Amino acid sequence: MEDFKVTKVIDIGNGVKIGGKNFEIIAGPCAVESEEQMYEIGKFLKDLGIKLLRGGAFKPRTSPYSFQGLGFEGLKILNKIKEEYNFKIVSEIMDPRDIEKSCEIIDIIQIGSRNMQNYSLLKEVGKLDKPILLKRGMSSTIREWLMAAEYIEAEGNKDIIFCERGIRTFEDYTRNTLDLVSVPIIKSLSNYPIIVDPSHGTGRWELVPSSTKAALAIGADGAIIEIHPEPSKALSDGRQSLNFNEFKKMYKDIEILKREINNDRNG
Amino acid sequence: MEDFKVTKVIDIGNGVKIGGKNFEIIAGPCAVESEEQMYEIGKFLKDLGIKLLRGGAFKPRTSPYSFQGLGFEGLKILNKIKEEYNFKIVSEIMDPRDIEKSCEIIDIIQIGSRNMQNYSLLKEVGKLDKPILLKRGMSSTIREWLMAAEYIEAEGNKDIIFCERGIRTFEDYTRNTLDLVSVPIIKSLSNYPIIVDPSHGTGRWELVPSSTKAALAIGADGAIIEIHPEPSKALSDGRQSLNFNEFKKMYKDIEILKREINNDRNG
Amino acid sequence: MEDFKVTKVIDIGNGVKIGGKNFEIIAGPCAVESEEQMYEIGKFLKDLGIKLLRGGAFKPRTSPYSFQGLGFEGLKILNKIKEEYNFKIVSEIMDPRDIEKSCEIIDIIQIGSRNMQNYSLLKEVGKLDKPILLKRGMSSTIREWLMAAEYIEAEGNKDIIFCERGIRTFEDYTRNTLDLVSVPIIKSLSNYPIIVDPSHGTGRWELVPSSTKAALAIGADGAIIEIHPEPSKALSDGRQSLNFNEFKKMYKDIEILKREINNDRNG
Amino acid sequence: MEDFKVTKVIDIGNGVKIGGKNFEIIAGPCAVESEEQMYEIGKFLKDLGIKLLRGGAFKPRTSPYSFQGLGFEGLKILNKIKEEYNFKIVSEIMDPRDIEKSCEIIDIIQIGSRNMQNYSLLKEVGKLDKPILLKRGMSSTIREWLMAAEYIEAEGNKDIIFCERGIRTFEDYTRNTLDLVSVPIIKSLSNYPIIVDPSHGTGRWELVPSSTKAALAIGADGAIIEIHPEPSKALSDGRQSLNFNEFKKMYKDIEILKREINNDRNG
């Protein structure tokens, strides 16, 4: 492995750490759609050993007429699943005014791509004592992304996790171009961990497993992956969600590759 | 001229209208730096006949350590100039919590590039009875830009002015690539007026005059242009600001071209 | 007008000059399809006063199964039209081995976008005593484009005409993003003339007239425009071709704007 | 592993095969600079077990005043090394007129990025009985890349190896954005093998080892890597060349990872 700076290990609680020798999988649906959906997904992920559940309550959608998420109702559902299965919750906040109330439930606050340079929001989450998942803006340079993290850090919060989610290019076969090389770059320029989002990064579920393996091999600290019991019926992003069988297969492959790469790292 | 949809004419007050056969120049510094600076610029622009003054009080800067603008102090300065010279004021707001207080002074609220998809902010300004200058996101497609306008419109505000300010591409000679062709496209897909920002669009003052002429020729309803008494001493964006002499020369050239094109349109 | 370097005037013969105070329109179909088609177009353009006829004989197409042009048969047709109506001919060459034979007919050799960095080809045309129309590569920076011209110039040929034809970006409403600001940049960094190709630059005929006006206003030395008697039946690029009526209307509008801008320049 | 189409195995001779379960490393300098340099590199690579040597004789450089390669002199040097150490040679051809003479020495003809849509060249190499390494154009979509391969295939040559070498985006920390996800896409849309060029893809030697691991993990059939005895003295691309120690370390890491992934694939 290259001689990077030492990555900070961020303790999420419940025995989960991001950074270090771990490669942590965060999974869940794009959007919280119903209690039933979340119990089904929660049970499945819990049985597999997943400890971090993602699920969007506030959804930033290009059109105001698309499904906008369930809002605080969605957070309440997330809270039930959290208590039932002992998950840590990753969810996005878009409005500074929603932070206080949301913080009772969310364990890792996600700043989405569209808000990577929403400096009011960055400053507010910078005042919290809670890890922030900072997604790369869809047309942000790495330098701008690092600067966005400095907005958070400057307010005192030093628990930041970068998340590469693809950048906008001319290529239209994929939804975005997943810039996996940003992983070793962030590791050389910063000491915060970085995970990869292959679901948004590719926009096609069939590319998610191989992209996740590449993320592990290139040195990422984890991945955040969309899963849905019936992707074709998802209210958003079904095209990029794995179903349960596909997810299970991928998760096992990753576990094997992880052990091999760790043996190699330690050997 | 092509047979576009009829563009809505937005009445700013004080005899200023955007849309229709007009080509309105909005001018001012990137950032409000001091009362002295603003009086100097204000007097110069007033004498030329400019009626719309721009000036940033809240500045979204890539780095948290760059000059962030004077905030409400800056707005107070703008208010003095406004009363002294009878300008209408164009200024950016980034935080929904600043809207109420800012609205007493700002006549056209600017939504900046970085916030084009800050949906919380769009919804809030959608509730106002005040024109909104909606800048294109630096990597927004035209479709996403139109959708952002729909977030405002859906809340009831139908006084929207689009502003093309360049998109991010691989070309690095200019700060952005000014997509002038978006002007006739927006006019064919929407009935709101559209102006052009050649200062951010090119990032180089020497390219501003010719780009503004092209904006007029392609059918834009105006331009928003940065000016500074001493560009080399500007606290932000000096590289793209015209000085007084350059601005004056450009303004006169535009006035002539405007008359010619209008004669042609009417003839 | 900005104080640019003085642009070289390239004498095409027959009283046609590119550079200087002129704004020359080159027109014709994307591809030479038949003698009948070319006579029809040739007569129409001649009557309007157009002196430079474009028409592709060798067509670089993305797929090997698309219409590839008529090759030397196409050049023969061009030659008949040339003799009948006294045009100067602009046509693309892709293979160094075709140059000698083609030069008997073609007056301005076009290097297409895909071949802007085909250095073998550039060196060969650099040895000719014939003007070269150097299209910008679809993802070329301005610096690379200037360097491509240096390949030609270094071999001795100093009759180069740049042609901005749009660059590849994420925006997909248009076929390319027409970078009109490249015009004043090229004029500041080089002394060769530059024309604009709004047909490829936008990919939509309805955007061609306004884009051509903007090209004139921003300082270009001409435009190259696709025209077809029946665009919907064109063997290539029909979507971006004007029909005769549309072309005529645009040509007259341009003539008026040209006079006005020249009056202004001279006044 | 995902259920891709079965990849064709291309037999290079000398026991080297590209495609199938192999991950083949091609290595060598960007440009052949001298016999001495090539003997030094050749001996080093031979001792490590590398069988495919790359080295540019004809170099497509942005500026006509940069080092253009040694041309046929360079090929002669490559031939000596080839005979001394029993390598198979990978080298670029840019001019259809150089093919015949070059084919006596080159075993895999490389079509470079700038020539991916040089259709005259593609058709000529399509007539050969020799593997073609088809690099992706720096702004080519995957669809255009596949179409370029069809130009070769349509002439009869069905020994094509795709090579992902990064695409041009707004990100300027790296020379290009390495689109690793193109690997599983090409494998799903074509049955030809695909390798990765992390040297051009990143433009920074320190990013090459981790990117190569990611290429292996995502399913590529090999990598082509630049190496130089003294990168800081290289006549071209020194910034992205590994020195001998760095290369050796990377090569061993890849060998280990390769075994592990293959065990997994077979298990």
Question: What does this entry look like structurally?
Answer:
4 copies of one chain form a homotetramer. Chain A has 267 residues and is an alpha/beta fold. Chain A is globular and about 40 Å long. The longest helix of chain A has 23 residues. Chain A has a single domain, classed as Alpha-Beta Barrel (TIM Barrel), CATH 3.20.20. Helices cover 37% and strands 15% of the residues of chain A. The first copy, chain A, is built from 9 helices and 10 strands. Chain A has an 8-stranded parallel sheet. The first copy, chain A, has a two-stranded antiparallel sheet with strand order 1-2. Chains in contact: A-B, A-C, A-D, B-C, B-D, C-D. At the B-D interface, loops of B face loops of D.
Strand content of chain A: 15-25%
Q: What distance lies between the first and last C-alpha atoms of chain A, to the nearest angstrom?
A: 12 Å
Secondary-structure element series of chain A:
EEEHEHEHEHEHEHEHHEH
User: Which architecture of chain A would the CATH scheme give at its second level?
Assistant: Alpha-Beta Barrel
Largest sheet: spatial strand order of chain A: 9-8-7-6-5-4-3-10
Oligomer: homotetramer
